[in-house]
Amino acid sequence: MHAIQLTHTPPATQPPPAASAPPLPAALVLLLATGAGLAVASIYYSQPMLGVLGAEIGASDRALGLVPTLTQLGYALGILLLAPLGDRYDRRRIILAKAALLAAALLLGGAAHAIGTLLVASLVTGLAATLAQDIVPAAATLAPEAHRGKVVGTVMTGLLLGILLSRVISGFVAENFGWRAVFVAAAASIALLGAAMWRSLPRFKPTTQLSYAALLGSLAELWKRHGALRRATLAQGLLSVGFSAFWSTLAVMLHGAPFHLGSAVAGAFGLAGAAGAVAAPLAGRIADRSGPERVTRMGAALSFVAFAAMALSPMLSAHGRLWLLGASAVAFDLGIQAALVAHQTIVYGIEPGARSRVNAVLVVGMFVGMAAGAALGSVLFARWGWLAVTALASSAAASALLVRLWPATRPSPSA
């Protein structure tokens, strides 16, 4: 822990960053990146384990679908209701409080013996996992202006790696040590993270004295005022429906006939997330050169093709289906992450003084879409099977493409 300590004195309020200030210590940047990754990973640990988990606690496929649904919904609610507090109170205290709550929720999930307890733990996990969305602005605040882009980029890489590795790690651990071990290990990692943050983070001075109600009200005003924000949120939310429907039902589908595969294989599909990590900087460069609108359309179109291709599954052998699933997962993940980077470019240009809040609106839309995708996907899979999930994902991606192709009411360079 001492290697990541900034000072041997108690944390003090951070000074205003200056362009000439030295860069942040590499150990602190690494801690922030690791923290963002571990926090966001908590949302996805359960997905590869649903088949094994459901069999042990006696839950139906439809009930299991509520686990990722409530986790995603909790995350969306946390962004909406808790993220604005970072402007009003010391962000360090918020980070530490959320870390404690997240560790407790993960332990509750690991101790669950009934679906009801697991659902409560899933909702609280989603709420507290918004810790990741407090760490990113903390990094931007601490970083000197001359190094801010590099620091924030490093932290976002950690966040993407958390999404990428979470399913792989949880699938492997569940296969070899049981699904409860995943939750216990995750809780321990968050507890250690909280201790490191307590020792290393300085205090943050609030940037506004607005009341909590006024902070929330400003989100609605931004939504009403900017059509580009509404379009970006709607399109990314629709893409998230397909993304979540796939991942929330994949483990249950692979657990049954004709595959009969365990959680480790389901988790290994998470390696497709590497495509998203590659797509992020590439999409940013294309958006800078050709405009973000083109990237949003390319991302939505690629996602639609990838989801629609999965309808070919009945024509293939079991081995061929697995290859198709893997290729489709790589393609749609690349498309969805590219669209996200382009949508962030659009909304950040809307109102520079409210970037945290417009980002909160965009992220809420994403996770509402993920919650809806998890819920609809589980119902469709239980009633009509995998092809119904494929139809849902394809329709959602096609709708997102239509949103981006539809002319804006008030065209602007960024919309």
Structure description:
With 415 residues, this protein is mainly α. The longest helix has 31 residues.
The average pLDDT score comes to 83
The poorly predicted ranges are: 1-12, 411-415
Count of helix runs = 17
The string of secondary-structure elements, in order, is HHHHHHHHHHHHHHHHH
Structural class: mainly alpha
Q: Which percent range describes the beta-strand content?
A: under 5%
Distance between the termini: 45 Å
Tally of strands: 0
**What is the CA-atom radius of gyration, in angstroms?**
21 Å
Largest sheet: none
Helix content: over 70%
> What does the overall shape look like?
globular
Keywords:
415 residues, mainly alpha, globular, disordered N terminus, disordered C terminus
Summary of the model, kept short:
By secondary structure, this protein is mostly helical. The chain has 17 helices and no strands.
Chain-wise SSE layout:
Layout: H1 26-41, H2 50-57, H3 61-82, H4 85-88, H5 91-111, H6 115-128, H7 131-142, H8 148-177, H9 179-200, H10 212-225, H11 227-255, H12 263-268, H13 273-290, H14 292-309, H15 318-348, H16 355-384, H17 386-405
Helix pairs in contact: 1-7, 1-8, 1-9, 3-6, 3-11, 3-16, 5-6, 5-7, 5-9, 7-8, 8-9, 8-13, 10-16, 11-15, 11-16, 11-17, 13-14, 13-15, 14-15, 14-17, 15-16, 16-17
